[in-house]
TrEMBL record:
Gene3D superfamilies: Vaccinia Virus protein VP39
Protein's name according to its UniProt entry: FkbM family methyltransferase
Annotated source species: Flavivirga eckloniae
NCBIfam families assigned: fkbM_fam
Keywords of this entry: Methyltransferase, Transferase
PANTHER family registered for this protein in UniProt: METHYLTRANSFERASE, FKBM FAMILY PROTEIN (PTHR34203), SLL1173 PROTEIN (PTHR34203:SF15)
The keyword Ribonucleoprotein belongs to this UniProt entry's keyword annotation: no
UniProt key word Cell division: no
An example molecular function term from Gene Ontology annotations: methyltransferase activity
Residue intervals passing through the bilayer: none
Listed InterPro entries: FkbM_mtfrase, SAM-dependent_MTase, SAM-dependent_MTases_sf
Length: 310
């Protein structure tokens, strides 16, 4: 191991113990830039707070913070841990390198439960790292990783390798092509897409019922919902969904008109407000990049769901 990487490991063992503060992220960014300039290997092991390990690339904005903090979306992951029934299925749609898949699989194993995680990641670089991260945590039997994305039709298309890839990384944030203006200057890669309704009946029908879905696919969530109407209406899972307004605006999409026909009956939508989640009547109140929970009314009385108001 290079001396610079040894120094980084010592540093991260200290920074993981610090309380989170946004200004620290800038400090980590400077440390990171200096270490890479001095020749540090960019692929390192992030030791997460739940005792799992994630191979990350320090040259990507999305991944580097976890190396210094041992966390990734800690508030959201804490919430879904409290809601998820570990004896059922968790779908990770847009799994990237596996932060959610590893965490949820680890939860299932720790509880000695019978559930599974099914992950979908269409970009090859991310998929290969996802598989590796499952392997190094001995979670490959808990999580099934699939090298395709979910949409409203079976298709081959291109994905745009966005900001994380500018410095030579092989993993990071990627989005199905949206508009010439948004995609200009970025490389693209071919990917495969399938419909949830098609592949569930073909390959996963023997699995337990779907209790929860995490969906973060950079402005393609509406297509995914459209292609999974039968499965979602049958299983009625809780859905954690990103709302990335710039992608939808680039497509000329009006959020409520597009999404409301795709959300099953008797589902409520919640947006975070402080430590609680407040019911909303329109997706237009979301910030530029936000997260919402779509929850069937019959689940609101279950343990853990008290954080949802209204």
């Amino acid at each position: 191991m290079k001396l610079t990487n040894r120094c980084l490991n010592v540093l991260s063992s200290i920074t993981r113990k610090l309380a989170y503060h946004q200004k620290l992220n800038q400090l980590y960014k400077h440390f990171n830039r200096m270490a890479l300039a001095l020749g540090a290997e960019p692929i390192v092991t992030a030791k997460m707070k739940d005792n799992t390990k994630i191979l990350v690339d320090l040259s990507t904005r999305t991944e580097r913070v976890s190396f210094y903090t041992g966390k990734y979306d800690p508030e959201l992951i804490t919430v879904i841990h409290s809601l998820f029934n570990p004896n059922k299925c968790f779908l990770d749609i847009g799994a990237n390198i596996g932060f959610y898949s590893v965490s949820m699989s680890h939860l299932i194993r720790n509880k000695k439960a019978t559930g599974h995680v099914i992950a979908f990641e269409p970009f090859e670089g991310n998929y290969l790292r996802l598989v590796k991260n499952l392997e190094i945590n001995n979670l490959s039997k808990v999580c099934k990783a699939n090298p395709f994305g979910l949409s409203n039709k079976s298709d081959t298309t291109e994905i745009t390798l966005r900001e994380d890839f500018k410095h030579g990384a092989n993993t990071g944030n990627a989005a199905i092509r949206t508009s010439e203006a948004m995609d200009e200057g970025f490389k693209v890669s071919p990917i495969k897409l399938e419909r949830l309704d098609d592949i569930w009946h073909k390959d996963f029908s023997e699995n337990k019922s779907i209790d929860m879905i995490k969906m973060d696919i950079e402005g393609h969530e509406d297509f995914c919902l459209d292609g999974g109407q039968e499965v979602i209406n049958k299983h009625r899972p809780t859905i954690l969904m990103e709302v990335n307004k710039p992608y939808y605006e680039a497509r000329g999409v009006k959020l409520d008109e597009q999404f409301f026909p795709l959300i099953p009956e008797n589902y409520n939508i919640y947006k975070q407000k402080g430590t609680k989640w407040e019911r909303i009547e329109s997706l237009t109140v979301c910030t530029t990049i936000d997260n919402v929970f779509l929850i069937p009314q019959e689940k609101l009385s279950l343990s853990g769901y008290h954080i949802f108001e209204g």
